[in-house]
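User: Show me a protein chain along with its predicted structure.
Assistant: Here is one chain, sequence first, then structure tokens.
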Amino acid sequence: MNQLRVNRALGMEDPLSSSAPQGLRDVLNEEAFKRKIAVERKRTERCKDPFLLMLLEADAHSGARRGGKNLDNVVCALLPATRETDVIGWYKDQAIVGVMFTGLAPCDKSTVLSTILTRVSTALRNELTFDQFSQISISFHFFPDEWDHDNSDRPSNLALYPDLQSSKESKRLVFGLKRTIDVTGSALLLASCAPLFAAIAVVIKVTSRGPVFFKQQRVGQYGKRFMFLKFRSMYANNDHSEHKEYVTKLIAGNAERISRNGRTEGVYKLANDRRITPIGRFLRRTSLDELPQFLNVLWGDMSLVGPRPPIPYELAAYETWHRRRLLQVKPGITGLWQVEGRNRIPFDDMVRLDLQYATSWTPLLDLKILIRTPAAVIKGAY
């Protein structure tokens, strides 16, 4: 890609062609800037046009007062050097300056970064002394961010989600209450279900070869992976390719409902999965195979209520907006989707229910979902 194509992708035929006079530009405060980032993420999810977040931070060793003065000078340099459509504001008040380069056309990221870095560096050198310039660190963050599926720690780029972090801080007490309910509830259920655990384990070992527990990597909050537990309901060493193919179609909206007996309207699931053992079908219909997940709740990987955690190959098929279901709350054993529609609704509707839960969550809503869950299981949901 040549320089002209990059400039056109950035909307910059000339470095200063669409810059506005400094007095006509607004520098957003921290709250407004973070809100703009959230809005721009949703716009990108809808329009597919990526944006770039650039963060400029003063060296911590330069001192708060001196660093703040340097950043004021940085803002003065950025205003005439960026486009009128770019958004400038405080990512962290008087500590980190942010610029969102919006409306970028999809193109080679490294070339775009090089072009913007050159433009910004030139503007800063003209405004700052050499000592001041050397104390400024610059980082770049593209959205959609590329979640590293090989990284089991935390593939999402949290710099792009400052609004979620702020919300988490403001709701620290209620999330603490949720965690208390999770620990207390899972511990009590594990203790009371111990005889049932033992009985299921014996039946699984007697009826088929293989371990009692099925262990699988799942994707939790912020894309962090964890070891997910269930009672084994399938034959050991089976092929997952058929399931992978079906869920890929399901996520893309191309899957058809499958009827288990040929008479019902069917569900969005491999209802006639030959990998499942006879006792496994009973465990799945009654949701008894889910009981070991109370250990995942106790360990902090899951909550009693929340979105279901996807398999990594499911995450790889997600649209950008689908990822939001993994960002705001921990995954859960049950949730709004399980009691409202379960496998009878398309994948996009499931995600919308998860997002509805994440934005309207309260301890009372969790209680209502928990109360409704046994009835959903009794109705014979798969």
